[in-house]
Design a protein that fits this description.
single chain, mainly alpha, 2 domains, two-stranded antiparallel ribbon, 2 strands, flat
């Protein structure tokens, strides 16, 4: 029996790969079979994992997780209302009442945006800041780590301030000169800090330095309020390099994962051929 299912899998695999030659009925059959089986499989999964325990069981069987609930109770309404909103989404199939589905869609999108704001801020903003609070010299010193983060933010903020002042007030304006002094002081302090860390630790963490430079460069590239000229333009070009390296690594990882899938299917076909030879004694 196992050999029969293995043979069916091998035939479907070869049918999918036959598209490399040209579009043909074998490929279409395998493609439609995959879509149909996947749709049916996920429909059953979604029903038993979501619809039945969260809607059908509380509303009609009056129980949640095997525990009875009262008809018309708060928990009953909490199951009925989302269920009705889900049903309203199908109103789009009926042109005369299609507008009703917009209410359910609006509640769904708004609720998801509100609930997702906190984890997104935690994962993409707070953790990004924490990831850049690193010691340039690779030492486990929280004060040095936060100092380096403040240094990076200070350089970027001073640079933007200087560019804004020079653009709107002119390079000879006293505020522009103050901006030059601020940038010079921050950069000088940064150089002193790096040299002191090098002399104390004896080693520089290249990874941490590249991380901070990549962050500043990428932020500069996506800063569209001013033209990318001067310091901002240089940092933007550095950001492009980091973006291209990141995109290239992501594309390479994707290709590598697809090749690993191909190797797995080829190994499956080789095993199938071995089973055929074993059965027929070849």
């Amino acid at each position: 029996m196992t050999f029969i299912w293995t043979t069916i899998g091998a035939i479907l695999t070869l049918s999918i790969y036959s598209f490399l030659y040209k579009d043909n009925p074998f490929y279409k059959f395998a493609e439609h079979l995959v879509v149909g089986v996947s749709a049916g499989y996920y429909l059953v999964i979604y029903y038993f994992n979501y619809i039945h325990p969260n809607v059908f069981s509380p509303v009609f069987l009056l129980e949640i997780g095997g525990e009875p609930i009262g008809f018309g109770s708060f928990l009953w309404w909490m199951a009925l209302i989302p269920g009705l909103l889900g049903v309203l989404l199908y109103a789009r199939f009926f042109p005369k009442i299609a507008w009703v589905g917009r209410w359910a869609l609006g509640i769904y999108v708004g609720g998801y945006a509100g609930l997702g704001l906190s984890p997104v801020m935690q994962a993409r903003v707070i953790e990004q800041l924490r990831a850049n609070a690193l010691s340039v010299a690779g030492v486990e010193d929280p004060f040095a780590a936060m100092t380096n983060l403040a240094l990076a933010v200070g350089i970027f903020a001073a640079m933007i301030y200087l560019l804004v002042v020079k653009r709107n007030l002119g390079a000879k304006n006293p505020l522009a000169k103050v901006g030059v002094l601020v940038v010079s002081a921050v950069i000088a302090y940064g150089g002193w800090l790096v040299l002191s860390l090098i002399s104390s630790a004896g080693v520089v963490s290249l990874t941490n330095i590249l991380l901070v430079i990549g962050l500043l460069g990428t932020l500069s590239y996506f800063f569209f309020s001013m033209k990318h000229k001067g310091i901002l333009g240089g940092l933007a070009r550095v950001g492009i390099v980091f973006l291209m390296v990141g995109f290239g690594a992501s594309f390479g990882y994707t290709v590598m994962s697809r090749i690993s899938l191909l190797i797995g299917r080829v190994g499956f076909l080789i095993d199938w051929v071995g089973q055929i030879r074993g059965i027929f004694g070849a």
